[in-house]
Design goal:
This protein is an alpha/beta fold. It contains 35 helices and 18 strands. The strands form four sheets. The chain has an eleven-stranded mixed sheet with strand order 5-4-3-6-7-18-17-14-10-8-9, sandwiched between helices. The chain has a three-stranded antiparallel sheet with strand order 11-12-13. A two-stranded antiparallel sheet has the order 1-2.
Amino acid sequence: MPPAAERSAQPAGSGARTRAPGTGSARPDSRARPDSRARAESKARAAHQRGLRAGSAWRPAVAARHMRTGLLALGWTDNHQQPDASGVPGEFHALAARLLMSLAHFEAEQGRTEYGLRLLDQAGPLTAAGDRGVLLSQLGLLFVRTWRARDALPLLDEAVVLLRDYPDPSYLARTLLNRALSHLYAGDVRRARPDLVWCERVSAEHGLDLMAAKALHNRGYGEMLVGDLPSALQLYDAAAASYRLSAPSTLPVLAMDKSRALLAAGLAEDAARELDGAIASFRRQRLDQDLAEAELARSEAALALGNLTAAQRWATAARERSRRRGNLALACLAELTRLRARARSARNPGAIAAEAVLLGERLRECGLRGDADVAELIAVRALLAAGRAGEARQRIAGVRRAGPTTPLDVSLLRRLARAELAQSERRPGRALTELRAGLALVHTRRGQLGSLDLQTGAAALGTDLARAGLRLALERGSARLVFSWLERSRAQAFGVPPVRPPADPQAAAVLAELRQLNYVIRMAELNGQRDPASIARRGELQRGIRERSWHAGGFGIVLAPAGLAEVQAALGQSGQSLAAILSRDGQLIACVVRDTSVRLIRLGDAKAAVEAGRRLSADLDTLAGRHLASRIDAVVRDSVRHQAAMLAAEIVTPLLACTADGGLVLTPPGALAGIPWSLLPGLRHRPLTVSPSASVWLAAWRRRTAAPGAGQTGAPLLVAGPDLVHADPEIAEIAKVYPGGQQLTGKDATVDHTLRGLDGASLAHLAAHGHHDRGNVLFSRLDLADGPLMAYDVQQLAAAPGQVVLSSCDVGRTVVRPGEEVLGFSAALLYAGTATVIASVARVADDASVRVMTAYHRTLRAGARPAEALAQAALDEPLSPFICFGSG
């Protein structure tokens, strides 16, 4: 999908909109009086300027009407799509040519490409010698917009030469922009960059702000093509700021390109939202070409989200629209996405392979070699599925090797196809090598990203590889291989060192406004009211902060996953066992690791366990802090016991049969991440730690045990938030356990004071209302005296606290992304480097919270490890949903 092109034949002027004329007009009499001809010329020039202004605002239908008004005033006729300029007096030829050039483009934008080319043919003889560069530039643009870069480049090259000394520098700037676009379309970023720099320089020298913004936009597209997503998103945002001032109607085009960057980062839902808005705008503005491109991108977003029906529907719409406007290249790309969706559930892989081969040939004819490779790889996989390995081997041999500008998704598809070929040839070792190499590419991409949001999203790019590798490991029946593969494909964002951006006054001001809005919204809620304006503004600010975080680049450092031997050594020293739970074909399986052994055991039914976990959490939420009628209370409590027993039968009972008697570390799959494990029969009295992966547990265990207190303050931080009856008494009781601890209560419990206390603290206890925000996970928050402390804030800490206890509801909950990547308040602390987080995965009654937390700190102070202290503290609270995360 090409980025921003410059779509006018000449700079916009001023003037009001005119009503569209009819087709055809009387020709001016050659004997007409001079003032009549002057009026005709004046009308034509005014119409031209109005049309150009409408075109710059992305309103091609309006622009075309204005151009016709001007042409008809000069004696041009257009009956039944047969333009005739024979009636235009010679003195008006140059002006008519410019009008025809502009009309050609605006007609093409509405899907009438062939008609646009006829208009340019007619403009040729009328064009003044000095304007030939303009004509070539406009013809080149028409070819660019129909994805015919090979035809466009020679025209644009000649146009650049002719326009170097043209009186109006905007022509040179827009031609450079369109030539850069041709190079980007062909994936040649190296050649595009000099043209964009030249375009920016000319635009800056002559005050062409919109042109400069488009150059920024296209530079962003180039950075996206080479995989530098933070730079691409930063340039897109800079271009958006200029567009809002000079041409707001250009923003949907930018949103379309931004969506591609988000898809490349694995954020398909965000990409889909951007595209839905762009599609609505293109339909209103009748921008047929842009609409086709947006529909194609929307089909790719649907495919990434696994919605195959929607992917095929969007791709079909893009294909038909592209065919109507003669854009065969875009039609082929739409067919490619449609074929990718069909291939995922095809019952006749042989037919898919045949279609893919033919489509690959058409794509190659269009000059889309990279996309032709994708078609070939689809054919390879389909042939393998059809049992035709020999043909598959021949086809994959013809696929080009990956280069520096090969998109990541194409490289990953190549690795997957090669792995499936190796597996069909009974070479599982080679297959796993290909899959590991593919996941290493994903991890390299992740290391280039500084945003936790993007780092966790990147896992979506490698889900097919991860599933294939785990399937192979399980088929080989090797517990060691299964463990290794889980650690290679689960929670990999924890292997990227956190990036703490420098202080930004603008970002600080936005955060301050967001806190104030949250405070206002919270006060309204406590008074039984709703503040729609503040809620809308809060959403806008959250989006802005989140998108700003995407600009941060990573260090390029990625840590290797933990090896089995080092995990076993740490388990032996801590006296614990580890169980990594996974699901395959509806069956739960555990890879159980002890200090001297590793084995696979079958657990129960995955679907039954997930449903029991969902119902258990709902029942706990119902009971917490509510005065239910005795009959209803009894029913809910009975359901709690039933669901807990079912989970124990499906998971715990077979698991405990092969684990040691000491502590247990669980690394559950995402579907089971929110289970309150500590209250299940068989686990209630046992020290239990939950961690996203063995690697995460090992890193946290080392931080907690290697040098306790290193770089951390000795005095615990104790914070009581507002509007909680139990908060102050809870903090007062815990303060007795830690004489000299820093207490923040009442108006002193502000966000700023709390963050300063958290920075490097050895232990922090926060008793405050918690809110888990599923829609904006990094804005999950704790209510403090002057507003919320957000998960986003935790990432800004210079030194993470050693242990954090969150006695409020909900903030132990997480959103799980593909690749078992977790996001939430407690997860944000683990990402920042906190070794242990104690938090609840369900609502908890206030009085129960006070009892459990007080007992926890007394036991912890006596020398127990966190998981041991929590297990002992909850002995008398059978419905305690508190979990020890990280290292216990």
